[in-house]
Amino acid sequence: INTDWVIPYSDWPENLRDEYTYNPEKAKDLLAEAGYPNGFKTQALMSNADDVTVVEIMKAQFMDIGVDMDIEVYDMSTFMSICREGKHEQMAFFVSAALTFDPPNNISFRTEHRWQNFAMVRDPDYLAIYNDILNASDISEAQQLVKEADMYAISQHWAVNLFGNKSNILYQPYLKGYNGSSITGAGNPFYARYWIDQVLKTSLR
Fold first, then answer.
1. In 10 A of CB 156, how many CB atoms?
2. Residue 56: what are its φ and ψ, rounded to 5°?
3. Nearest residue to 130 via CA among 141, 146, 151
4. Distance separating alpha carbons of residues 79 and 95, to the nearest angstrom
5. What is the DSSP string of 83-103?
6. CA distance linking residue 69 with residue 71, whole number of Å
7. Residue 112 class from Cβ within 10 Å (0-12 exposed, 13-18 middle, 19+ buried)?
8. Could you give the CA distance from residue 60 to residue 24 in angstroms, rounded to a whole number?
9. Which CA distances in Å does 193 have to 178, 196, 204?
10. Do residues 171 and 154 touch, judged by C-beta distance below 8 A?
11. Each residue's pLDDT tens digit, 10-47
């Protein structure tokens, strides 16, 4: 986890950590307080390119508190079309690339972020933080504001956050100027920064 840009779970306020701790009984109490003592039905859209087993595990955990979630699986193009146009009625399962080389661009819940704002959030306070990020005078100020935006979104519970993914990136040792992160996620990689060490490449033949 890049602690320059986000606050790790272990450093969250205790009450917020409790809200993200698996606790079916507390969840049932919250449902009852909200007027759903017997739970409710919902749905989750997903792409067939993602792992349905993960969503089935989430479905089973929801059932433990009386929330019956139907899983609707679509091909990727149909799934993205539905979600970008805001035509899904309830939830959408989406694997995010998280923070890459451009953290401010990964502020997912801003209104115009059609790639990841599938929750259709329109929150002026959150958007105000994002605008402050764009106008930050230096990197340290931007990092602090990204942390603020992240914690605000987490406290609002706009998403059911699951575990993080890990992937391997393999590249030749003679590829220089590449740090392993620039091409993972949305955005334009800085190909102009990369170069080939021809001497090293030749020596490895």
1. 14
2. -65, -35
3. 146
4. 13
5. HHTT--SSEE------S-S-G
6. 6
7. exposed
8. 12
9. 7, 10, 22
10. no
11. 999 999 999 999 999 999 999 999 999 999 999 999 99
| Contact indicator for 118, 72 with CB cutoff of 8 Å | no
CB atoms within 10 A of CB 61: 15
Instruction: Please give the Cα distance from 160 to 10 (Å, whole number).
Output: 18
Q: Rounded to 5 degrees, what angle do the CA atoms 121, 124, 128 make? A: 115
Contact by Cβ (8 Å): 106, 99 = yes
Q: Which residues contact 52 (CB under 8 A, 6 or more apart)?
A: 46, 71, 73
Reported as a single tens digit per residue, the pLDDT across 39-71 is 999 999 999 999 899 999 999 999 999 999 999
Instruction: Tell me the residue length of the chain.
Output: 205
Amino acid at 129: I
Strand partners, 68: 41
Which band of pLDDT confidence, cut at 50, 70 and 90, is reported for residue 161?
confident
Percent of the chain with pLDDT over 70: 82
- Euclidean distance between CA atoms 195 and 176, whole angstroms: 5
* CB-based contact 121:158 (threshold 8 Å): yes
135-to-5, 131, 139, 142, 192 alpha-carbon distances in Å: 16, 6, 11, 8, 26
